[in-house]
Amino acid sequence: MKSTQQALKDSIIPALTADLAVMATVAARGRKDSHSSLAPINSTSHVLWGAEAGQVDGFSARHSLPGLVINAGAGLWWAAVFQKLFGEQADRRGPMVALAGGLATAGLAYVVDYKLVPKRLTPGWELRISDKSLYMSLAAMGLGLGVGAILARRYRL
């Protein structure tokens, strides 16, 4: 198992690719489900502002910026978890293990974020996107983690 320090270092690229994949998917699914690309991102700020965050459709510094920052922080957290649990195996065994580890980490994120933590600490996407869209967003996170790990290894980033 990777040391915590190495796992954090190796998390940067997977976190970036996962964040890009998740935000693109959440925005696209928000547009489809609630006619606003920003609505599910804004709803993440419910951690700070409560239920009102789930009602904001357009850009709002009060909701959009914290929503992006919270999601990016969560992406870094889950990338570190991925690296700690699967990073060494992904480095040694290759792309399929990286992708499987990313998807397993996304599954763990679902359990933690939607079954274990208090409702106030959920990502908030569920306030503005369907269950199907939520699962698609988590799958995008998992694939983003795996692809990021592959790229980081391939290009020694």
In terms of topology, how is this protein built?
Layout: H1 4-9, H2 12-34, H3 39-43, H4 46-49, H5 64-93, H6 95-116, H7 131-154
Helix pairs in contact: 2-5, 2-7, 5-6, 5-7, 6-7
What does this structure look like?
By secondary structure, the protein is mainly α. The chain has one domain. Helices cover 73% and strands 0% of the residues. It is built from 7 helices and no strands. Helix 5 crosses helix 7 and helix 6 runs antiparallel to helix 7. The longest helix has 30 residues. It is elongated and about 45 Å long. The two termini are 20 Å apart. The mean pLDDT is 94.
Task: Give a brief description.
With 157 residues, this protein is mostly helical.
Reading the helices and strands in chain order gives HHHHHHH
Give the overall shape, derived from the CA principal axes. elongated
If helices are DSSP runs of H or I spanning 4 or more residues, what is the number of helices? Answer: 7
Radius of gyration (CA) equals 15 Å
Query: Beta-strand level of the residues, as a percent range?
Result: under 5%
Helix and strand content put the structural class at: mainly alpha
- Fraction of residues in helices? over 70%
How many beta-strand segments?
Answer: 0
Mean pLDDT: 94
How far is the first residue's CA from the last residue's CA?
Answer: 20 Å
Largest sheet: none
* Count of discrete domains: 1
pLDDT < 50 stretches = none
